[in-house]
Specification:
With 643 residues, the protein is an alpha/beta fold. The protein contains 26 helices and 19 strands.
Length: 643
């Protein structure tokens, strides 16, 4: 564990003799099938040991070890395309496709992405991170292959949770009638498996996926084409037999040949079924039953806790407890419970992010007022709109990056109607190891143009609490966006605060020549720079409505206005300031500091801020350069020059 604390974690030390011979799937396909069970055991052990050192997503990967081996053993990857949904489960896939030694730098700066990424490997056929995209992407690949006359297998791997999203069903609904050569693998890790059921269903799946059954099925269709009454009878018999052991015939109705369920941890059954299904033409769906966290007892007992972990003790599974200041997520969770206690109209909604959004206490205390809608962000937003129409007070807890998925509903169903919905937007700004797919880089930009909405960003923990109070009290759509983790460490005073006046900022420090207009998470850094440069520092608090009067006063009294935000510069808070100045005909030098026009790759949050020039040093360097260009008196500056 000490190596993690003092530098890059070293590679796992335990011997994995069979796995060490696998540098790519070509090596894997040279193994006799009898060796695959040993390989699965070694791959699972390597995965546990790797993630215990680096942290990352563990439980989902443990559940698909056999499937990952089976896919690369049976199919000719990367010629055959495998598309993983979300990608939390893709670590075994990465290990088998030439990235075993690089696992020591998983999710670190310059290391492996925590998700499949096209630029990282030809085996990563589609970049993912958000849920429920795999079937659409794989269908697109299958259509493209058909158009080009290419013979290749296309496989989408999707979990039962991701299948709850509307986009997955849109793709299924579209794909079936097209009759594409597409295999969908449903990784169902919610259903328990008893040995008898697993054995019977695996045996049946092999029969149903075999050539004899397929020929009989297609032959019967041909023979009975002119005998509609008999054809209907045989069809009902077939569905009755399959229905005795299958969850439903939904996928058959959508045009997919359904096979399963199969025990996803039975290596022989997985390989045999994949081999049979590889020979089957058209759209087909394989239903695998797996266990999240399989093969590591702590993760089996607590799969949610081991979904994403920090480095942990390999032998005991103990994860070090996080110390330090209260996080913004915890502040929201506390506020939600207290506000619900005082107001029975409050209803809370989350799109499958109860733990991540700090809603566990609320769900336990107010189960009848808690609504987890699954991975369905669009539905979450419009559900809240419907509640608001009936004089309830819905609160939607959602990550910034996931609110993007419900954008039309935010525009059309909430903002255009001016409905009273409070949005608690977590993970706003850069998010460290989760990288660009989960960064909340755009929410200022995409919410700022919307009518009626109030957008707030707290400078510290105390302000977060009172912004939530202000948003809830506001009779219309309101959004409080806050970053991952904790802030400056300001203690929340629940009695020593008040609702904030809408659209009013505050001057944190008076200075000369330069005014730093800081939004949300970058206020503390701006204050530190302001001290060194003797600059005025303003905590803007509101992105919409802006404090127009305060901005115009700053423009009148200073030669340089610097906006600082942890959002894309394009269309962000700084853009709003420039729009105001242009509208008022005010000419003053402006410098906008924010996230640059590129994807910020995974690294620690501190490293990411430095790379964007948004840490103290980067802000100071940029401001000093602008001051030099303006010819401002250096004698007015306090402290030594940066560097």
């Amino acid at each position: 564990m000490s190596d993690t604390a003092h530098g890059s974690p070293s590679a796992p030390e335990t011997s994995f003799p069979l796995l060490s011979t696998i540098d790519d799937p070509d090596d894997l396909r040279l193994l006799p099938a009898s060796d695959l069970k040993q390989l699965a055991a070694e791959l699972r052990g390597f995965l546990i040991e790797s993630v215990s050192r680096t942290g990352g997503h563990l439980a989902a990967g443990l559940g698909v070890v056999e499937l990952s081996i089976g896919l690369h053993y049976v199919f000719d990857t990367p010629h055959d395309r495998v598309v993983w949904d979300v990608g939390h489960q893709a670590y075994p896939h990465k290990i088998l496709t030439g990235r075993r030694e690089r696992m020591a730098r998983m999710r670190m700066q310059g290391g492996l992405s925590g998700f499949p990424k096209r630029a990282e490997s030809p085996y990563d056929t589609f970049g993912v991170g958000h849920s429920s995209t795999s079937i659409s992407a794989a269908l697109g690949m299958a259509i493209a292959a058909k158009q080009k006359g290419e013979q290749r297998q296309i496989i989408a791997v999707i979990g039962d949770g991701a299948l709850s999203a509307g986009m997955a069903f849109e793709a299924l609904n579209h794909g079936g009638p097209l009759d594409p050569d597409l295999l969908i693998i449903l990784n169902d890790n919610e259903m328990s498996i008893s040995p008898p059921v697993g054995a019977i269903s695996s045996h049946l799946a092999r029969l149903l996926s075999g050539g004899l059954y397929t020929k009989m099925r297609e032959g019967s269709k041909t023979a009975l084409r002119g005998m509609p009454q008999l054809r209907e009878l045989v069809g009902r018999w077939e569905e009755h037999v399959k229905g005795m052991v299958m969850p439903s015939t939904l996928f058959e109705e959508l045009g997919f040949n359904y096979i399963g369920p199969v025990d996803g941890h039975d290596m022989d059954a997985v390989v045999a079924t994949l081999r049979n299904m590889k020979k089957m033409p058209g759209p087909r769906l394989l239903h695998l039953i797996t266990q999240k966290g399989h093969g590591y007892e702590p993760a089996e007992h607590a799969p949610t806790a081991y979904h994403g972990v920090t480095p942990f003790d390999l032998k005991t599974g103990a994860v070090p407890k996080k110390g330090g200041a209260q996080s913004y997520t915890q502040i929201f969770g506390d506020w939600l419970c207290e506000r619900a206690e005082a107001d029975s109209r409050l209803l809370a909604i989350t799109p499958a992010m109860r733990e991540g959004s700090g809603m566990v206490p609320f769900s336990e205390r107010f189960p009848g007022r808690y609504f987890d809608v699954g991975i369905a962000e669009q539905h979450a937003v419009t559900l809240a709109a419907g509640m608001a129409c009936e004089a309830m007070k819905p609160v939607v807890a959602i990550y910034s990056t996931f609110l993007q998925r419900g954008y039309d509903q935010l525009v059309h169903d909430v903002c255009l109607q001016g409905l009273d919905v409070t949005f608690a937007v977590d993970r706003a700004g850069l998010v460290g190891a989760d990288g660009p797919t989960h960064a909340g880089a755009f929410d200022y930009s995409y919410t700022r143009p919307l009518p009626h909405i109030v957008i707030m960003a707290p400078a510290d923990e105390h302000e977060c609490w009172w912004m939530l109070e202000t948003a809830y009290a506001y009779d219309g759509p309101a959004m409080v966006r806050y970053p991952r983790g904790s802030g400056p460490g300001v203690v929340v005073d629940k009695t020593g605060g008040a609702l904030l006046p809408i659209g009013k900022g505050e001057i944190r420090r008076e200075g000369q020549d330069v005014a730093l207009l800081a939004f949300g998470s970058r206020v503390a850094a701006a204050e530190a720079v302001g001290e060194r440069l003797n600059a005025t520092v303003v905590n803007m608090r509101f992105v919409k409505p802006l404090d127009d009067l305060l901005i115009l006063q700053m423009a009148e009294r200073h030669q340089l206005l610097v906006t600082v935000e942890e959002n894309a510069v394009a269309g962000g808070a700084g853009s709003a300031v420039s729009e105001l100045l242009a509208e008022q005909g005010v000419l003053v030098r402006c410098l906008h500091l924010g996230l640059p026009d590129r994807c910020q790759e995974q690294a620690s949050h501190v490293q990411q801020l430095a790379a964007c020039g948004l840490d103290d040093a980067g802000i100071e360097e940029a401001v000093r350069a602008e001051m030099r260009d303006l010819g401002l008196e250096q004698t007015r500056l306090k402290g030594a020059s940066a560097g």
